[in-house]
């Protein structure tokens, strides 16, 4: 049996030129660079750590698995629900976060990211930490165990909606084609971003694993965008945008599976027009999320929200957090503006006497509004759960 074709791997130059992709890529790169350039490196580090929980929540939500961010944070502290089903979802989100953390510590080359080894390692890292109940692939009335890092083989065939995934015997060649087509050595400039988005679809089309392809694909897309030099990756969250438009995301994924529609629809076996539509959707979604984070992280707006948070606490409107001195505003604001400040400056910043300033800083540390890496390190801005909806409104569900 011949190997099924999945071309075009990247839209043709002609197809790109007559589409909105060039303008979208330019806007995407410009706004991402502006967001990244406006933030202190320490703030970027704080946000990246915070957003791993958000990314986990939304990526799993796309798959119909919902564990509230509050419960995800509990899981990261080893606090699990008594309900087995809820506990398993907490473990799933924890596995997703740990996978992000482990890959963030690696020296990842573009060649590795588009290769089979990366896919296997991503899937293996994620699934090794899942409970047995979530290592099951269901379809056609049959349940099969999902082996971490195992590429489909033999009769392990998959149907997703209307898409019949390629038979397992073809996966080696298809993954080789995938790796070669999306090599950063072959695609440069604006076309590289288009290639990353196209790769997201083509990976789901190949469907190399029995389950987990969507989450592996979204993790990989995040890493490829960072490798491509897109600013602020890890500060803004593509999965948030995809989850908020879940039906549209799945619809454009499905349409990009369509066969070529006539001589004017590219030169591959699959529809070039539908692939362009998919890439456009992905880039627009990314731009939307960058614009959202740019708006909430604006220095002036953040200052107002920090002040509103302090006022809300003193009006008894913040659950789990009691009154606090109004001078806390100055300390939190300075930590956000600078990323961190020296301990010796706490009295000058707050305008309080030494002992009063120390007590206030101690309270801010205990409540997670300021953090430290050691007892003598500078004090950093932080985002505790009780302040998230004030600092980063609408980022994730509250309650």
Could you tell me the CATH topology label of the largest domain. Fic-like fold
Strand segment count: 7
Derived from helix and strand composition plus strand pairing, the structural class reads mainly alpha
CATH architecture of the largest domain: Orthogonal Bundle
Question: What does the model show?
Answer:
It is a single chain. The model has no long low-confidence stretch (mean pLDDT 95). This protein is mainly α and 399 residues long. The relative contact order is 0.13. It has 18 helices and seven strands. The chain folds into two domains: 278 residues, Fic-like fold (Orthogonal Bundle); 93 residues, Orthogonal Bundle (Arc Repressor Mutant, subunit A), CATH 1.10.10. The strands form three sheets. It has a three-stranded antiparallel β-sheet with strand order 5-7-6. Strands 1-2 form a two-stranded antiparallel ribbon. Helix 2 crosses helix 9, helix 4 crosses helix 5 and helix 11 crosses helix 13.
């Amino acid at each position: 049996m011949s190997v099924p074709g999945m071309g075009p791997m990247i839209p043709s130059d002609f197809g790109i030129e007559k589409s909105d992709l060039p303008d979208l890529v330019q806007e995407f790169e410009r706004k991402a660079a502006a967001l990244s350039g406006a933030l202190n490196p320490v703030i970027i580090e704080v946000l990246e750590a915070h957003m791993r929980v958000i990314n986990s929540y939304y990526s799993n939500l796309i798959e119909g698995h919902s564990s509230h961010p509050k419960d995800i944070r509990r899981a990261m502290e080893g606090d699990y629900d008594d309900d087995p089903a809820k506990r398993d979802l907490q473990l799933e989100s924890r596995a997703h976060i740990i996978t992000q953390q482990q890959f963030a510590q690696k020296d990842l080359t573009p060649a590795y990211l588009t290769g089979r080894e990366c896919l296997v390692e991503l899937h293996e890292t994620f699934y090794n930490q899942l409970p047995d109940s979530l290592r099951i692939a269901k379809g056609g009335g049959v349940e099969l165990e999902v082996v971490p890092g195992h590429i489909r083989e033999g009769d392990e065939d998959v149907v997703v909606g209307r898409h019949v995934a390629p038979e397992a015997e073809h996966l080696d060649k298809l993954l080789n084609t995938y790796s070669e087509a999306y090599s950063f050595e072959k695609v440069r400039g604006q076309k590289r971003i288009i290639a990353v988005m196209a790769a997201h679809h083509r990976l789901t089309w190949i469907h190399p694993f029995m389950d987990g392809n969507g989450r592996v694909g979204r993790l990989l897309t995040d890493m490829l965008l960072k490798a491509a030099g897109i600013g602020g990756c890890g500060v803004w969250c593509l999965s948030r945008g995809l989850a908020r438009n879940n039906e549209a995301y799945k619809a454009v994924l499905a349409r990009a599976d369509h066969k070529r529609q006539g001589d004017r629809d590219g030169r591959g076996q699959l529809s070039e027009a539908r692939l362009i539509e998919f890439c456009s959707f992905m880039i627009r979604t990314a731009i939307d999320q960058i614009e959202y984070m740019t708006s909430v992280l604006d220095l002036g707006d953040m200052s107002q929200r920090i002040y509103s948070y302090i006022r809300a606490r003193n009006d008894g409107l913040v659950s789990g957090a009691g009154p606090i001195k109004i001078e806390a505003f100055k300390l939190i604001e300075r930590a956000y503006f600078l990323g961190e400040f020296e301990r010796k400056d706490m009295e000058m910043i707050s305008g309080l006497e030494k002992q009063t300033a120390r007590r206030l800083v101690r309270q801010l540390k205990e409540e997670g509004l300021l953090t430290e890496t050691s007892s003598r390190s500078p004090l950093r801005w932080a985002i505790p759960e009780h302040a998230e909806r004030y600092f980063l409104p609408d980022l994730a569900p509250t309650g």
